[in-house]
Fold each of these.
Amino acid sequence: LLDDKIVKIREDFSYLDEQKLGRKIIYLDNAATSQKPNCVIDAVSDYYKYQNANPHRGAHYLTVKATEAYENARSSIAKFINAKSSDEIIFTRNTTESLNLIAYSYALENLKKDDEILITILEHHSNFTTWHYVAEKTGAKLKIVYLDDNFSVDMTDFENKLTSKTKLVSVTGASNVTSCMPDIEKIVELSHKNGAIVVVDGAQLAPHKKVDMQKINCDFFAISGHKMLSPMGIGILYGKKDILDNMKPFMYGGEMIEYVYEDYSTFTLSPTRFEAGTMNVGGAIGLAKAIEYMEAIGMDNIYERERQLSEYAVSQLNKIPYIDIYYPQNAKNVGSAIAFNVKEIHPHDVASILDNFNIAVRSGHHCAMPLHKYLKINASCRASISFYNTKQEIDEFLTHLEDVRRTLGYGLE
Ligand code: PMP
C-alpha cells in the first residue's frame, strides 16, 4: 500500500482526529481491539435509523428489510471466508462464545473418558479454559503441544502427541502474543487422518490475512468482529454444515425452534439452530461493512503492509540491547503483534510511561498465562500493528522506549 493511499485511509478513522479526541494517540493495541472506520459506524447507525425491526419475526416492511440486511451480512461473511454456504455462518458475540458453543454443543456431547483434546501452549485463555472444562466434565485428557526455538508450534511435538485417542484439536490461527501462524492446513490434514475434528481460533488471523475455509478444511473457525474493524459484541462461528446440523443447540429460546409442544420441542437446522433470541443485527451489519472495507483495500495488501511495518519494528527492536523480543524471526507467515520486554522494567511501567508519550501498547499476560509461564516470564508488553499505522508512528514508539529507560534511571545499553 502506497503512503498516499494510507493517508487517505487514515481519514476514515476518527480516533486520529486529535482535536476531537482531546489528544494524539499512536494506537498500537490493535490485537486487543481494532479502531473502527467511519463507514462501519455509519452503517450501524443507518441500520438503526432506517431498517430497525426484529428480523425473521413478522411480515411488515421493516422486519423484511431487517431480515434482508441481516441475511445479506451472513452471505458476505460466508463469501469472505469462502464457506460452502451461508448456513455455515453462525453469529455469536465473539471468539470466546464461538469456542464455548463448540465445547457445549459438540465436545460435551461427543467426547468421553480417555479421549484426548490437543491444543498448543500458544492458546488464548478462551481456547484453554474451555477445554479444561470439557476435560473435567467428560474425563477426556487435555494435551499440550509446545514450541520450537522460533516461538512457533513444534510440529514434531504435535505429531508425537496426536494419537488415535485424539478426538479434538483446537489451535490458534495466529498467536496474540508471539504472532506465530501455525501451519493450520497441515494440522488439519494430520488431525483428520487420525479421525480428530479441528477447531481454529481465528481471532488474530482473519483480520490480517485472507482465510479460505474450503482450503484450510477445518471443522470450526472462530472470529471476533471487534478485532477486524467492527463493533464489539459480534462474532462468527464457522462450522461444517453436516457437523452443525448434528449438534445439540447451545442456547434455547425463540427463533431456533421448529415446533414447541407442551412437553418437548424440535429445532431448526444451522444457522438459526444456534441463534436463540434476538440477535445483534446492527453488529452483523457493521461486520459486513468492515469486510467490504477490508476487501476494497485487499486482504493481501493488508497482510503485506502489516508485515512490512512489523518487520521494520522487529528489525529495529532487535538492535536495542535492553529489549527482549518474543517473535518468530524470518517466519514464512507471521502476524503483526510484537511482544517484548524492556530489561529490568515491569511491562506495566513500560506501558504507563509510553502512554505519557501518547503511545498505546498492551501490558500484562494478554490472556495467555500458560504461554508466559512457558517462556519463563510473568508478563510482557505488546505493540500490535494495523495497516492504518505508519512507519513514523513506529519510529516514535521506538524513540520513546529510550525514555522508558531514562525515566526509571536505566542506561541505554
Ligand atoms: N483468541 C485470541 C488469539 C485472541 O487474541 C482473543 C482476544 N484477545 C480471543 C481469542 C478472545 O477474543 P474475544 O475476547 O473477542 O472473545
Amino acid sequence: MTKNGLEIIEELESCVRSYVRAFPTVFTKARGYKMWDEDGKEYIDFFSGAGALNYGHNEPNMKKKLVEYILDDGITHSLDMASSAKAEFLEKFNEVILKPRDLDYKVMFPGPTGTNTVESALKLARKVTGRTEIISFTNGFHGMTIGSLSVTGNSMKRSGAGIPLHNTVTMPYDNFVSDELDTLEYLERFLEDNGSGVSIPAAIILETVQGEGGINAARFEWIKKVDEICKRWGILLIIDDVQAGVGRTGTFFSFEPAGIKPDIVCLSKSIGGYGLPLALTLISPELDQWKPGEHNGTFRGNNHAFVTATEALTYWEDPTFEKSIQDKSATITKFLENMIEKYPEMKGHLKGRGFMQGISSDVEGFSEKVAEEAFNRCLIMETAGGHDQVFKLFPPINIDEAGLEKGFELIEESIKEAIK
Ligand code: PMP
C-alpha cells in the first residue's frame, strides 16, 4: 500500500527538519494567495514564504516568462559571465527602482540567500573602514551563518553556534527600553568617549521593521537619527531589507519614508519575485573597493531568478501599485485595531506597518494558539518574537480585498477559539 505524504514525512522526521510541526500537511499546489494540500484542501497563505513570495505563488506573468526562457534553452548557470537575463534585470532594476528614487548604488550579487547579502555587507564595511566592530540591535535577525548570526539579537539562535560571537555590540532597538528613553543619546556618549576603550564601529546594521524579532517597527525619526549618527562618526549604515523590502512595508525599500540613503542595502527573499533564490547587495559607489576575487561564489545570481525578478519589476512600473499596497495596509491596520478592541482578553498590541503587521499578546502562549487555530481553519500564519508572542499577518502584497477579508474572517474565528 502506498503511504500518504504525511506518513512519509513522519518516517523522515528522524533525518529531516522542517516546518511540518507547525503546518502538518503535505502541500502539492499553490496559486496566488491559495495553497492546496494532497487531500485537495484549500488554504489561504498569510505567510508568503516568510516574505519570499510577496507576489504570491506561481504569479502568471513570471511563470510565462520563465517557461519561455527554459523552452528557449536560456542560460541556467553562468557564474560571473555576462548573460542576457542578468543584463536585462540590471537595466530594469536601475530604470524602474533606483533612478526614480534618486538612488545611486552599485549592485553586487553576494550569493543566493539573505544571509549571503548580510555577510557581504559586514565584510565590505570592515574592509572599507579598516575597523572591526559592528553595532546591531536587540531582537534583530540577520541570518544563520557566523557573521550574520553575530549581529542577530536572539540568544536561542546564537546558541546554535555553540561559541560566543565576537566583534559586535548590541544596542537597544527603538522603544526597546521605553518610549521615553532615547538610547541613541546613550550611543553617542559612548562614541564621544572612545578614549576609554569604546571603538568606533565599522557599521551599524538594522531592519526598519524587525521581521523575526516580533514585527517591531522603528519610528522614522529614530531611523533618521541613526543615519545622522552614522554620518557624524563616519560609520556605514547597512539596512537589512531582506524581509521588509520589495514592497512589504508599502514602498519598494522600507527606508524610503524615513528619507535616508543607506550606504549599503541588503535585499533577498522577494527580489527574485517567484520564490527563486536571489540576493543583491547595493553599495554606494565609493565602497566598491573589492578587487576581483575578493568576494566570489558559485551561485551568485541565478538566471532563472533574473528572468522572474525582471518581470516582477513590471509591478513597480505601474504608478498605482504602491498606493494599492498602502490602501490594503490601512485595511489590515483597521482590522487588527478592531480585534484588539473587541477581544480585550487577548491583551493585544498592534505591531509593524504595511503588509508586515500583527498582534502581540501579553497572554502567554496566546499567539501560538491563534496560529494553530488558524491552521485548523486552513489559514497559514506564523508567529514571531523571542517568545512567539506575536501572530503575524504576512499575505502577498498583490492579494485582493476578497482574499484579505477571507483571511480576516478566519483570524477572528481563531482568536475567539483561542480565548475559550
Ligand atoms: N535578514 C532578515 C531581515 C531576514 O528576515 C532573514 C530571513 N528570515 C535573513 C536576513 C536571512 O535570509 P536567508 O534565510 O535567506 O539566509
